[in-house]
Task: structure prediction
Amino acid sequence: MKQRLIVAALGIPALLLILLAAPVWATAALCALLAAVGCYELMHAVGREEWKLLWLMPVIAAWMCTAIGLGEDWTPEPGLYIGICCFVAVVYTFAIAVIGHGRERSLSFRTAMAGLFSVTAIAAGFACLVILRGISPAVVLTPFIGAFMSDTGAFFAGRAFGKRKLAPAVSPNKTVAGCIGGFAGSIAGMVVFHLVVKTWFQLDLGWGMILLMGVVGSLFGQLGDLSFSVIKREFGIKDYGAIFPGHGGVLDRFDSVLFVAPAYLILLSILLP
Result:
């Protein structure tokens, strides 16, 4: 517990400083690093020998975030660039699979899918954070608020009222009451966010958008949490890493955020003028 508190006390202010006060390229550099480490964690989970065949995945992940943060002079539309990087990852993965098929060191289907997931979910999720930071320093906080407040609401509601299990085979501690509490927590967090940024940042997203983001944040945050839990069950691991003492790895801390960030970016792109 002491380690968790120390890491949180140091990490949260540092994260806020980079997201709110530093230039966009600093957010891009941080996200590139986290994306590369996250990809490495996932590749390491599938087995030391097999992940070596997909060594390029962390490079693609880091480049996706870096290129978006460098500027718009030569980089295509950010969404298009994410799609290009994902396509490169697909071609690379199946080229390795085809070349190695039938040989002693071949790429299994589940490792191939893990490799693709590392770019299409992990890298793309961090890249969406970079794009949100480019929109506004305040907006980039929304995926963290939606995801973490959902986790907080789920934790307290689950402890107080949780009896019926939500997905016992995937995450035994999650309950239906916790799931409902997660939606309440996310909505409450977004309401507070709206009141603060409307005053300090002169940013008004509208109450309808804020409530919708609260619901979407909890929905995709919980889905992200369960999705990464499924992978841990599949490969028989407890944590993805230990880079954050007491908290686990990058994917243990950012699993929910990686699903919420793209969902919020799509939502804002469609509904805001």
